[in-house]
Amino acid sequence: MSDQHLPSSQRRKFMLGAAALPLALAMSRIGHAAALPTAQVNTTGLAVTDTEVVVGQLHSATGTMAISETGSIQAEQLAIDQINAMGGILGRKIRVIKEDGASDWPTFAEKSRKLLVNDKVATVFGCWTSASRKAVLPIFEKENGLLYYPTFYEGLEQSKNVIYTGQEATQQILYGLDWAKQEKSAKTFFLIGSDYIWPRTSMKIARKHVEAFQGGKIVGEEYYPLGHTNFNSLINKIKIAKPDCIFAAVVGGSNVAFYKQLKAAGITGAKQFLLTLSVTEDEMLGVGGENFAGFYSSMKYFQSLDNANNKAFVEAFKKAYGPKAVIGDVTQAAYLGPWLWKAAVEKAGSFDVDKVVAASPGIELPTAPEGYVKIHENHHLYSKARIAEGQPDGSFKVVAESPELMVPDPFPKGYQ
Amino acid sequence: MDALKTWLDRSGLASIAILAVLLLVVFPLAMDSFRLNLVGKYLTYGFVAIGLVMLWGYGGVLSLGQGVFFGLGGYAMAMFLKLEASDPQSTAIQSTPGIPDFMDWNQLTALPLWWEPFNSFGFTLSAVVAVPVLLAFVISYAMFKRRVGGVYFAIITQAVALILTVLIIGQQGYTGGVNGMTDLKTLLGWDIRSDEAKTVLYFVTTALLLAAVLLCRWIQLSKLGTLLLAMRDKEDRVRFSGYDVSMFKVFAFCLAAALSAIGGALFTLQVGFMSPTLIGIVPSIEMVIFAAVGGRMSLVGAVYGALLVNFGKTYFSETFPDLWLFLMAALFIGVVMAFPNGLAGLYESHVKPWLARRKGGAAEAGGPPAGTPGEAGQQAAAPIASPGPSASPAAPHSTPAVAADPGLGLGTKVSSQSA
């Protein structure tokens, strides 16, 4: 079952389809005869040979962010392994150069420059925090590199040299708030976040949406330093304000303290409606299912999503990384990076960054675990928004899904 | 001839010259622009390290908060560059064009008043040094006048590092918060991201660093340097001799702060951003490690220490992405266990006597392999880094007590006790 005689557009669809199907995956092989000459697919001196293309991977394998970024590292590696098992890209196997950003932003900058200038990688999959992305962005723009960035983030950014495979803020927030109003009749909201750019921007959008478009009311808005673990005064404020909905974007270690203290104070899913932007399967490991049961999380992906693509993905991921491995929203978004890059390279017929970038808008990925996605002109993905309820065993039950794909809008008019 | 040689030995100019040749000729010829830029970045830490030699090695005051001054210098420079990068055309997409992007995200609608002066390059340059020195003066004056010293002072410097980090992260509308100030592009219209600019900045950094080393060496050789050492070893005696000990400590602290700040400003120029991760306790302790690895008594050693540790960091993390932190830890522990006086101490205690023996053997063919005791003793006692000779004028460098122990710290102690 060789596919080298199919026209390239059909072949792409076939190969994308194969991503999720282990059977087809095992049988699919692209002959090297189909490969284009290197001089043709690489006119800018990237590290591409007749048999190999070199890419970079830049995450924190050490330091405080390692616990969050490990899932992304694994998902990207899984996607690359699967692509290589299918014969690679344009007949070339992908070789990964792994660099450790060490949770330190200057190190991210140094390593990204090393990957682009010294190693001449064709693309980089990497970064997790906004701070690390901000640190490397000028380097990618200066050296004309290409970065696939997996994390849901605050928006307010759009670069020629970055493809954002996570959601920007409006994609994660607006549907959740509408759902809260319709399904949970929430009229009053209490906004809580860690104190940095992502929660601040998210809450600004939430406030605008609630006040200007829903006719609701914000009864409190509080921010706490990163790593803050004492939420007793906040819990008192919540008890006084009695909001219909607690809308939270607390991150990292604060998350664990926040939900434990809520439960200790008797604020549980049975009595209080809470919607968060920052609890995925990964955070759930730390928070504990019993502390989050009955609360809701707004993401684009949950491990429990019921579709064939996702079943194959979860199975492959657990096979590679053990039955206890969990897959959060960002892990899935990171998995999309190599596939989106592959599709764009094959559409462009070249590894040249400019050609891949030009080919990227409009790239579709019907086989994504989260379902069909497509790259927008602004380099973000069209994707669905989903709401899931935390279960006592630490899993999520998806309870709602936006009927349409959410259009990415990193600079939302009317929300500034 | 001999007098010149002795003077060269005593002043340490020879080792400074070797460092200059290495930095100005060997590295630029041997490295591509990417690696050279990395060395340039490491050298900015060299400023902090030589500041610590003056403060810790000579003054005996351990500061675990040098990142504060590195950061303040870096932020002052970053503010100027950020304003230049935030002209109304390139920020047209914002709600309020013409202000830095992070201010716009934080709903600021006008440039805060205290940012205005940073539109001026001249003001920025003076602020790079003046602001950290002022803070250093306030902290150290308050502490040293009350005779707070030793470990308590070290803890307070750590607290300052923590406070400043929290302040910068918390005031994100004014400081860029945890992301820091990013996307710095030009300096007075000159693109600092290009390879040529990075090469120019490398040479500027090197020149300033060498100038700083010379300045510090000059201070060490002056009466002031002698006093710093005396104060470190027997503070009470110096006080009873009529000197205002606290003001000398304040001076050393301010000098170290100024050097760190210059390093920070150059860091911002070379790396293109500044963030609170460079200010906190961990980077501040790392800076002390640079000086400890290089040898806290040796200016040149401290520069090598900063280069070696950072080179190790880069090399290990590129080559062994999974293991590199363990390798770095092994390097630190190894150096501290094996050579308590750092690389410079290793040189003084092992390489120099060996060289002297070799030389002695060559000069007097057939003579005893150990060389003449007098020459070996003099060689060991007059190193660039050793405080022995200059520490106590009462103990000339041929004093047997010093010659017997070329190890740096101990040599000093012996000489001052014998004085």
Short key terms for the protein model shown above:
heterodimer; A: 416 residues; alpha/beta; seven-stranded mixed sheet; five-stranded parallel sheet; 15 strands; elongated; disordered N terminus; B: 419 residues; mainly alpha; two-stranded antiparallel ribbon; 20 helices; 2 strands; 72% helix; 1% strand
- Overall number of strands of chain A: 15
What do the pLDDT scores of chain A average to? 88
Shape of chain A: elongated
Task: Please tell me how large the radius of gyration of chain B is.
Answer: 23 Å
Question: What is the share of helical residues of chain A?
Answer: 40-55%
Structural class of chain A: alpha/beta
Biggest sheet architecture of chain B: 2 strands, antiparallel
Q: Stretches of chain B where pLDDT falls below 50 for ≥5 residues?
A: 365-419
Order of helices and strands of chain A: HHHEHEHEHEEHEHEHEHEHHEHHHEEEEE
User: What fraction of residues of chain B sit in β-strands?
Assistant: under 5%
Helical element count of chain A? 15
* H and E string of chain B: HHHHHHHHEEHHHHHHHHHHHH
Instruction: Give the assembly state of these chains.
Output: heterodimer
Q: Would you count the extended β strands of chain B for me? A: 2
Structural class of chain B: mainly alpha
Beta strand % of chain A:
15-25%
